[in-house]
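Please check both lines for our workbook:

___
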Amino acid sequence: MDDLFVHTSNPLPVSTNGTLLHYVQQQQRVAAEVEQCRIQRDKLLSELRDSKEKGERYEEQCGLLKEEIRKLDRNKDRSTASMEYLKNVVLSYMTLDGYSPGRLHIANAIATILKFSPEERQKAIRNLSQSTKWWPPSS
């Protein structure tokens, strides 16, 4: 009868209990791995979002920098053109003979290009009006 109690309290054979225990442990390991995979997936998704945001910011900054480069190139071209214009104006001024109304006109153009202050402009025009030659004669 004791043998009967042993078998009724344990309805499954011993080999089935070991298999069941192994199955439960394996299921727990799989559940832990699944949870780790979920955590890793969430972390990777977060990093992906951050990377996309950084990429968008970098693209925006790249566009702004490209526009700034184009602006600087345009300013350089303008500067070169202004320098060429100034050279031509100064050359015209220097090649005029003696005092002439054209010399006063060119002096005003030079003052404008070089952005003379009102005092500087007045001083230059006054000096020009009093002298007959701005450039000394060549020897």
Q: What stands out?
A: The mean pLDDT is 81. Residues 44 and 50 are 10 Å apart (CA to CA). The chain is about 85% helix and 0% strand.
